[in-house]
C-alpha cells in the first residue's frame, strides 16, 4: 500500500503531485518499526525535503531507502529491506543501493533520507549513481557525517532535529 493516495485526475487528465502530510506520516509510521521510535523528530527533515521538492516541481522522484514512507504520491522507491525487515514493504525496486548501476530509469529528483551514510567506502560511487539517474539529489545525513568525498552541495540546511543536515545538489553543479 502506498503511503500517499493520489488525488483524482482533473477534467483535463492532469493532477497535481501530492506530498506527504504530517498527519499521514504519523499514521504511517506509528508502531511500524523500532527504527521509527523517534519519528516526531524525523518529521523535520521529511518536511524540509518536501519543501525543496515543492520548489523544484518535479514530475518524477526516486526515493532510496525510504522504509515505505514516500514523500509524494508519484515517488518510486528503491530499497533492499534486509536490515529493517518490514512486514509490508512498499518498495518498487528491491535492490541494494551500493550495487551500481541501479535498475531504474531517469528521475527529476533522487532523495535519500538518512540512508546514504550506510554506504561506507562506496559512498562516492552511490552518489555518482544517484547523480546519473537524477537531475537533482537531496540527501539527509547525520550532522557529524563527513561529506568531503562528495562535491560541495548547492544548498544545505544544518542542525535539524535528530542531528541531521539536509543537502541538495543539481546536475549543473557536479
Structure explained in plain terms:
By secondary structure, this protein is an alpha/beta fold. The protein has one domain (22-173): Vaccinia Virus protein VP39 (Rossmann fold, 3-Layer(aba) Sandwich). Helix content is 21%, strand content 23%. A 7-stranded mixed sheet has the order 3-2-1-4-5-7-6, sandwiched between helices. Helix 3 (123-133) links the parallel strand 4 and strand 5. The N and C termini lie far apart (35 Å).
Mean pLDDT: 87
Low-confidence stretches: none
Strand order of the largest sheet: 3-2-1-4-5-7-6
CATH architecture: 3-Layer(aba) Sandwich
Q: What gross morphology would you assign?
A: globular
Helix and strand element order? HHEEEEHEEE
The N- to C-terminal Cα distance equals 35 Å
In total, how many beta strands? 7
- Major sheet: 7 strands, mixed
Number of structural domains:
1
Helix/strand class: alpha/beta
CATH superfamily: Vaccinia Virus protein VP39
CATH topological fold name: Rossmann fold
Radius of gyration: 15 Å
Count of separate DSSP helical elements: 3
CATH top level?
Alpha Beta
List keywords for this structure.
7 strands; alpha/beta; single chain; seven-stranded mixed sheet; Rossmann fold; 174 residues; globular; 21% helix
Task: Put the structure in a nutshell.
The protein has three helices and seven strands; from the N terminus they run H-H-E-E-E-E-H-E-E-E.
What topology does this entry show?
Blueprint: H1 22-29, H2 39-56, E1 61-64, E2 75-79, E3 93-94, E4 107-113, H3 123-133, E5 134-142, E6 155-160, E7 164-170
Helix pairs in contact: 1-2
Amino acid at each position: 500500500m502506498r503511503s500517499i493516495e493520489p488525488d483524482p485526475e482533473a477534467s483535463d487528465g492532469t493532477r497535481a503531485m501530492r506530498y506527504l502530510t504530517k498527519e499521514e506520516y504519523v499514521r504511517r509510521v506509528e508502531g511500524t518499526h523500532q527504527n521509527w521510535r523517534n519519528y516526531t523528530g524525523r518529521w523535520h527533515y521529511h518536511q524540509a525535503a518536501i519543501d525543496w521538492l515543492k520548489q523544484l516541481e518535479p514530475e518524477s522522484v526516486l526515493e532510496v531507502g525510504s522504509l515505505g514512507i514516500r514523500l509524494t504520491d508519484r515517488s518510486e522507491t528503491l530499497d533492499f529491506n534486509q536490515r529493517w525487515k518490514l512486514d509490508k514493504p512498499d518498495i518498487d525496486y528491491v535492490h541494494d543501493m551500493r550495487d551500481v548501476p541501479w535498475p531504474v530509469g531517469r528521475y527529476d529528483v533522487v532523495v535519500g533520507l538518512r540512508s546514504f551514510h550506510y554506504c561506507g567506502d562506496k559512498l562516492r560511487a552511490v552518489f555518482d549513481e544517484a547523480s546519473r539517474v537524477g537531475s537533482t539529489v537531496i540527501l539527509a545525513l547525520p550532522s557529524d557525517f563527513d561529506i568531503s568525498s562528495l562535491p560541495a552541495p548547492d544548498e544545505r540546511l544544518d542542525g535539524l532535529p535528530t542531528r541531521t543536515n539536509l543537502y541538495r545538489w543539481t546536475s549543473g553543479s557536479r
